[in-house]
Design brief:
29% of the residues lie in helices and 19% in strands. By secondary structure, the protein is α+β, with helices and mostly antiparallel strands. The protein has two domains: 247 residues, Aldehyde oxidase/xanthine dehydrogenase, molybdopterin binding domain (Aldehyde Oxidoreductase, domain 4); 136 residues, Aldehyde Oxidoreductase, domain 4 (2-Layer Sandwich), CATH 3.30.365.10. Strands 3-11-12-15 form a four-stranded mixed β-sheet, sandwiched between helices. The protein has a four-stranded mixed β-sheet with strand order 6-5-4-10. A three-stranded antiparallel β-sheet has the order 7-8-9. Helix 1 runs parallel beside helix 10.
Length: 510
């Protein structure tokens, strides 16, 4: 047992991936440099072929990373500008991916990951009951949009009752970027259950088969051609073919906007009239939908396989442009091009906001934010000392939405709230290297660390150390009396001279 006076750690945005991606993407750039390959190209050469099962048993069904890389490279002018900017200015690229919720429940139960109830009143008002918590990420809006789109009614009809355990069914939590995928799928299934009831009653009124009833634009119509709009079962719920059009521009774009070539409905009724008919025919008009990831998405049988599997994965690529003041060590991020594969952007404005927010948060972690400890005491407990960047320091961000349409997601959607963050820090680190030739392996990239790297680079160049030096590597060297000293294996210290080049760590600066 280890006793500590420091507070217990907890989950933060990008839970478990941010530091690892920083290391991985930095190493990938070092490998590219070692073999003389463009950093964007080495990433292209190592892309997956989707759909696939990875070596560690993760199922990938949608994969927008190639397009993310392509769009960021194109928008940033990477091919024309990389390595050709003014002295002290550089471009860096990095990628990341993230889960759309954990496939295995953290509560170790066989219960669904999310359950949603929907009730429709006689006046056409739709009430969605969900246990998913709205914590600022827009889950209530997402839930309302999915319900409205599925039922073919206006968004103004939908009201969401969330996270009231007296009224709502269980949802296992707002964490791990899971709500859109889990609660969205549950909402879609609940709405389809109610939709079947309305279609059956409307079909009687219009003397047609329930499969010929079409829901669109606050109208319930009979298709002259016939189209299986009403009978959307759980297996078809995320298919573009199961949704017939667009409801007031709320969600559907691209392939989901394909409209049937109909000769025109022979009969139609308003959404309220169809609801009244359904209540008269069935009584209470309610539906319940639940979602749990399928067994094939829950990983393999090897040790540790339960950590990491997800029903779908998002992908991101970013290019950062920075400048470094070689006199002060100050790093300035000028612009970030950030592409994110969210499957389907249910709410494009919200998705862009999540991308921009992720980049700004990542920039803070890259340049200024750290917890400083001394003898177990936190030395910067206030926001003034912790130095989160304000809007003044935040760079221009160009968000780029990539849609890969995941077959398991609601309308093809995946996560968009955490995945973008993990690419920001290594993109900035790689841009710093492009600008001044200093490879930093510890964040934040403070002026002190940048200056130490510049000094190490200068000494290494003077001594012709081709391996380079990582100024942030612990116990490798220290500056004393204007000279650099390497630490040996024993208690003694050795001055840095050509005879000790073997101890210079590889993969640092050139």
């Amino acid at each position: 047992r280890v006793l500590t006076n420091k507070p217990a750690c907890g989950a933060m945005r990008g839970h478990g991936t941010v530091n690892v991606r920083f290391a991985f993407e930095s190493q990938l750039d070092e490998l590219a440099s070692a073999i003389g390959m463009d950093p964007a190209e080495i990433r292209r050469r190592n892309l997956l072929q989707s759909p696939c099962i990875t070596v560690n048993g993760l199922r990938v069904q949608s994969y927008g990373l190639p397009e993310c890389i392509e769009k960021t490279v194109e928008r940033s002018g990477w091919k024309e500008r990389k390595g050709k900017l003014a002295k002290g200015r550089g471009l860096g690229i990095a990628c990341s991916h993230y889960v759309s919720g954990a496939a295995n429940s953290i509560i170790r139960s066989d219960m669904p990951h999310s359950t949603v109830n929907i009730k429709i009143d006689r006046d056409g008002g739709v009430v969605v009951y969900t246990g998913a918590s709205e914590i600022g990420q827009g889950s209530d809006t997402m839930t309302a949009q999915v319900a409205a789109e599925t039922l073919g009614c206006s968004l103004s009809r939908v009201r969401v009752v969330a996270a009231d355990t007296d009224l709502t069914p269980i949802d296992i939590g707002s964490y791990s970027s899971r709500v859109t995928f889990m609660a969205g799928n549950a909402t879609l299934r609940a709405a389809n259950e109610v939709k079947k009831l309305i279609a059956a009653a409307a079909a009687k009124k219009m003397s047609c088969d329930p499969h010929d009833v079409v829901f669109r634009g606050d109208l319930v119509t009979r298709s002259a051609r016939g189209g299986r709009d009403a009978a959307v079962g759980p297996a078809e719920q995320s298919s573009a073919a199961s949704v017939s059009g667009r409801v007031e521009g709320q969600i559907l774009r691209g392939s989901l906007q394909q409209k049937r070539k109909e000769e025109g409905p022979k009969h139609s009724m308003t959404f309220e009239e169809a609801v009244v008919a359904a209540i008269d025919f069935h009584g209470a008009l309610t539906g319940t939908g639940s979602y749990a990831p399928p067994a094939e998405a829950r990983g393999g049988k090897h040790k540790g396989a339960g950590v990491g599997p997800s029903p779908a994965y998002s992908y991101s690529a970013q290019v950062a442009e920075v400048s470094v003041d070689e006199e002060t060590g100050e790093v300035t991020v000028h612009k970030v091009w950030a592409a994110h594969d969210c499957g389907r952007a249910l709410n494009p404005v919200s998705v862009e906001g999540q991308i921009i927010g992720s980049v700004w948060m990542g920039m803070g972690q890259a340049l200024t934010e750290e917890m400083v400890w001394k003898d177990g005491m936190l030395m910067n407990p206030g926001l003034l000392e912790y130095r989160s960047p304000s809007s003044v320091e935040s760079p221009e961000v160009e968000p780029i939405i990539v849609e890969s349409l995941d077959p398991e997601g609601p309308f093809g959607a995946k996560e968009c709230s955490e995945g973008s963050l993990a690419a920001t820090i290594p993109a900035i680190a790689n841009a710093i290297y492009d600008a001044v030739g200093v490879r930093l392996h510890e964040s934040p990239f403070t002026p002190e660390r940048v200056l130490a790297g510049l000094r190490a680079k200068k000494h290494a160049k003077a001594l012709n150390l081709t391996e380079g030096i990582d100024p942030t590597a612990p116990n490798r060297f220290r500056e004393h009396g204007g000279a650099l000293w390497f630490k040996g294996k024993g208690p003694e210290r050795h001055p840095l001279d050509p005879s000790r080049r073997a101890e210079a760590p590889a993969g640092g600066t050139d």
